[in-house]
Structures are given as structure tokens and as C-alpha cells.
Design goal:
Oligomer: single chain
Strand content: under 5%
Number of helices: 19
Shape: elongated
Number of strands: 2
Helix content: 55-70%
Order of helices and strands: HHHHHHHHHHEHEHHHHHHHH
Length: 366
Amino acid sequence: MIYEFLDLLAHGLAPLPWWGYVVFTLVMTHITIAAVTIYLHRCQAHRGLDLHPAVAHFFRFWLWLTTGMITREWVAIHRKHHAKVETEDDPHSPQTRGIEKVLFQGAELYRDESRNQETLEKYGRGTPDDWIERNLYSRYLWQGVGLMLAVDLILFGGVGATIWAVQMMWIPFMAAGIINGAGHYWGYRNFACNDTSTNIVPWGILIGGEELHNNHHAYGSSAKLSSQWYEFDVGWLYIRALSHRYAVATSYARSLKAACNAEFAALRERHRGRVEMPSLRRIKRWLSSDPAALPETERTRLASALENSQVLQKVYAMRQELAALWERSTDSSEQLLARLQDWCMRAEASGIAPLAQFSLKLKRYN
């Protein structure tokens, strides 16, 4: 009886072969990565998608078990990073603090900034503040990771302590270290942002798609982090059925395709032989792009094209307003709804049929 008890303590209730422990650890840490990129980053920090309350709460609970992080703190620090990127006020820029500091002490930088009440009050608005957040998740931080340790020990005995240690180190190193460090130091760039953000590798698997960091800084409110055909964002695979706002952006582009086609034909007819017109494909790309990401020569040609068409001016202006609306990550749901309703009223009064039709489609998301 004693030997059986000692064996249970040593090997746990569910002993596995060595590769089983490896697979279990990878699955558990990947769920944590998914919770960070989908819930904390794309949903809470940037309001790039809306999650079903049950899904959002699962992620909150899971992060309580595996990281002890508070949603408000993580969101506030990340929003401040975007607002103050590469300056002395950036909580974790390797350009100002050094790559080694961010790479290996990223968790310490996070903890230091989490004690800054000004940061939390200014950038942490709109995050969960319900009863369970105040009385459990934010109040008993280490009890969650302690419960995770107990579960690992019960399941796997002594090996469970190693699995738990890997779980505890995963986010501090992979997210706080590699993304905040290497993601602003090494890699390639698709977009000329006003920062040093890079895509570490084109295959966003190990860190849930966060490897595509330059793409994210170029389009901060997008729920999809991949941009080129060869890039892969595994986090997007997990959320594409749950995301409304990214669907809005792509639906907008499709709805206005006919209007752009007709207006382009009319422009060529009106200015035949007198004004050099860019191709329809190029105009569509310009209209759907962030102007800051366009080279100066293309911004100049876009401005010239817009001067010749009130329809394209309206299409472009409304697109920019809609994009800016999604960037208001600290707005409440009521404020966002009011801004959407105002946008829809002006779209329907624009006199552009596809724009009015898109407005009716957008209302179904509200």
C-alpha cells in the first residue's frame, strides 16, 4: 500500500512515455499562446474581433491558471507600447532598453510597468471589470498558477513540476522576450512603419502568429496578422469564424468593387488622352491600403486620382473613417455602436449605391 502511494506520488495518475510529456506540454503552452494572441492582443487590446462571452471567459480563466496575468495590465502596457513605440516611454523597446534586456528580462519590464497606475488608468479602459475579475482573477493571482501546479503534480507526479515550470516560462520568454525583443530588432519588413517592427519569420505557428509583428504594427486593428501569400498566421485560423470586424473590412472592399469599376471607366472616358490614369488594380490597392504604408510616389498619384473623382474621394474617406473607428480600442460598446450608426447614416446619404448597400450589411453586425 505504501509502495503504491509512493509510486503515485512519483508518477501521478496519468504516467506517459517521454514523448507524451513533450506533446502534452506543447499543447498546453500553445493554448496559452492562443489565449494571449486571440483574447489579450487581438480582442482586448486592439478590439480587432468580438469573442463570444463563453470563449472570452475561458481564455480569462486559462490565463489565470497558466500566467497569473491581469487583462487590464497586459492591455494597458501593450497599448502604451503602440502609443509610445521606440521612445523612452515605450515599456519594452529594444531600441531604448537594449536587446538583451528585453529578450531575457522582458517579464521584469512588464512587472515594472504594471505598477504604473498612470499607465493602467490611461490605457487600460474597456477591459473586464466584473465581479469575478475583481474578486478572483485580479485578487488571487498566484492561486491560479498554484492550482495549475497541483493539477500537473497529480497527473504526472515529479515530471509535472517540470511541465509546470515550462508553462510558467513560456509567455515571459516567448511573448515578453522574443516578440517584444526580436520583433523590433531582427527579421524582415513588409511595411515602412514609423518604428523598427519586423516579421521574425513568415510562419506564425509557435507564437500563434505574433511572429508577423511588422504586419501587426502596420495594421494594428486587423485580426489577421499575415499579409503576403507565403505568410501563415495560425491564430487567424482559430478566430476567423469568430471575428466580425475583419469580415467588415473585407466586405467593404467587395461591396465597393462595382463602384470603383464604374467610376474608373468614367474617369478614363472623361480624361482620355489628357490625364495619365493609373491602372484599376493599382487604384483598388491604394484605396484599401493604409496611406502611411504607401511610398511617397504612390501617395502622390493617389491624391491626383482622388482629385479627379468625387466618388473615389468619398469611398476613400469613408474607408479611412471606418478604419479609424476600429482603432478606438478604448471606446465602450455603446460608444462604438453610436459611431457606427453615424457612419451608416452618412454612407446611406452619400448617393453611392454600393456604399449604401454596404451600410445595410454593416447594420447586421450591430
